[in-house]
Structure formats: C-alpha cells, structure tokens
Design goal:
Shape of chain B: globular
Number of strands of chain B: 11
Order of helices and strands of chain A: EEEEEEEEEEE
Strand content of chain A: over 45%
Mean pLDDT of chain A: 93
Largest sheet of chain B: 6 strands, mixed
Structural class of chain B: mainly beta
Oligomer: heterodimer
Largest interface: A-B, 30 and 29 residues
Number of strands of chain A: 11
Radius of gyration of chain B: 14 Å
Largest sheet of chain A: 7 strands, mixed
Helix content of chain A: under 10%
Radius of gyration of chain A: 14 Å
Amino acid sequence: NAGVTQTPKFRVLKTGQSMTLLCAQDMNHEYMYWYRQDPGMGLRLIHYSVGEGTTAKGEVPDGYNVSRLKKQNFLLGLESAAPSQTSVYFCASSYRTGGWMNTEAFFGQGTRLTVV
Amino acid sequence: AQSVTQLGSHVSVSEGALVLLRCNYSSSVPPYLFWYVQYPNQGLQLLLKYTSAATLVKGINGFEAEFKKSETSFHLTKPSAHMSDAAEYFCAVRKNSGGGADGLTFGKGTHLIIQP
C-alpha cells in the first residue's frame, strides 16, 4: 500500500516552460488536493477535487491548472512557469465517512520545483 | 473563515524537557483541528486530531493536545523531548465551508529544535 505518490521528486524548469506534476493515491479516496509550501508561509491550497471529473480553485490558483480524469490520479499543470512558482508542492488525499469533517489528509513526499 | 495561528516560528528545548507548541484558532463554528509533523525533506504526517469526542487528544510519538474552547487554543505538548522530535510542526483546521471537502487551512509552522 503506497499511499500517496508524487512524481517527479525534483525538477528544474526554465522560465516559460511547462510541466505536469502527477499525484497517484491507492486508498480509494474521494478528495484530492494540491498545496504549495514556501518558507514561513505554511501550506497553501492551490486546487482541489471532490471527485472524478471535478476540480475547484483553492487560495492560490493563478498560473496552475488541474485535472482529475481518474479517481486515483490528480494532475497539476504549470502552463508557463515563473520564478514565483519555485516551491515545494504537496499532493494530499482524504476520505469521506459519516463524520467526514474530522477526516485527516494523507500527504505525498513532495516535489521540489525550481524555476530559473 | 476558519484560521489558525501558531505562536513562535522556532522553539528550542533541551532533550528531556517539556515541549509546548502553541496553536490558537479562529472559527465561527465548532472547529476540527489537526497537528501534523514534517521531518526534513519529507511529507506531512498526522500526529493527532480533535474530533469533539474528548478535549484531551493523544497522538503518536508521545504527543498530546488539549482543546480549550474558552481560550480558542489547541496546544501540542510532550512531557520529555527526544532528539528525534526535531522537525517542523503544523497546526491545521478544516475549512468547514463549501461542503467541507475543500481541505485544511494550515498555520505557518513551528520549527522545533532539540538541544542535547
């Protein structure tokens, strides 16, 4: 049981290049999230998905797009990378239960992205 | 909107001493609160969560947290610090809006340093 797996682990991009980060979870979770982590800022939500085929904007969505074509996968795309997008990106998933409000999120190991 | 504030970006304690990491929340509804730990170059791991069943919550690795509504606090404690506790700690609250599936709001984190 791998949990939440992110690929790649590291990437260096030039300004203006595009890339896709892949997140896969094998826990059959309904909800999936993309966060970015910057020093002194904690984690901020970029986009999230409440089910296959649905996505929604989080706190800092500008410059990113997402897709969830399959329940187990959540892709984060950068169309034209900028230095301000240098960050560590975390994918997370969560599940629905009768008392779903107290369910925690499970995190991947992160992707360290540098845009030069 | 729900939010959390972590007091102290860095906390330093001696090995064997009490660990106290502070978290205050702001919420217009009963909050669902979480503590996560992040070891260097890793993802976030759940330490414990408050689910309203009990105000004193016990977590992994000897940590516990007490929910105090009168003080709007959810401080994390451990009686005796170990070198392996050195890490970044995040307090988080469920957003509790848009159906509740829109993720967690994180504090900015507290870096715990253990002095030998």
